[in-house]
Amino acid sequence: MGLFSKDIKTMNDLFVHTLRDIYYAENQILKALPEMIEKATDAQLRQALQSHLAETKNQVKRVEQVFQMHGVEAKGIDCPAIDGIIEEADDVAGEIADKEVLNAALAGAAQAVEHYEIARYGTLIAWAKQLGRNDCASVLQKNLDEEKAADKKLTAIAEARLNFRAAS
After folding, report:
1. What is the pTM of this model?
2. HSE (CB half, 13 Å, CA atoms) of 122?
3. Which stretch of DSSP H or E encloses residue 45?
4. Which residues of the chain fall below pLDDT 70?
5. Separation of CA 30 from chain center
6. Alpha-carbon Rg of the chain, whole angstroms?
């Protein structure tokens, strides 16, 4: 089997496949965020991660809504990319004793997750529009907007304090 499953023959198949990918990813993120929150010692970082945990729960519901609107079963498929990003974050965080460096690493790991989600949602929105599913694109756009806002917030926290403290 190549990069994609053999059952992908049409743009619609590709859309559903990628929707299942992001659904799996969002659910894995829901499992990973509490541990990241627990490890974070910076109050702003903890708050940003906690806020995004609540957003992620809503994002899962929106993806389920898109499945329903599109008339397909809501189910995930393995996403090696998000599994790898989360595994790398766990590995790096487990090796860092300095709390300031750990906070910077956690912010960086969270941003890697956000960037993956931003890429996936941007693609899904474009494909939904191409398939004439502006209704689905509109729902997915809400998730994309939240992912971009979370990334921006993490960047601001990292640049304003975490990176400086980690380097000191």
Report:
1. 0.93
2. 8
3. helix 43-70
4. 1-6
5. 9
6. 17
The residues, ordered by sequence, that sit 6+ positions from 108 with a Cβ below 8 Å of its Cβ are 158
**Do 40 and 46 form a contact (C-beta atoms < 8 A)?**
yes
- If we measure between CA atoms, which residue out of 69, 65, 68, 75 comes closest to residue 22? 75
Judge contact between 40 and 50, C-beta under 8 A.
no
Picking from 25, 22, 30, 27, the residue whose alpha carbon sits closest to that of residue 50 is 30
Which single residue is written with the structure tokens 């995004």? 52
Query: What length is written for the chain?
Result: 168
Q: Give the pLDDT of residue 5.
A: 60
Q: How far apart are CA 112 and CA 118, in angstroms?
A: 10
CB 8 within 8 A of CB 17: yes
Residues in CB range of 127: below 8 A, 6 or more apart: 11, 14, 15, 18
Cβ within 8 Å of residue 13, ≥6 positions away: 7
Neighbours of 101 (CB within 10 A): 17
Rounded CA separation 78/97 (Å): 32
Residue type, 18: T
Cα–Cα distance, 106 to 92 (Å, whole number):
9
Q: Is 155 in a helix, a strand, or coil?
A: helix
Output the pLDDT for position 91: 87
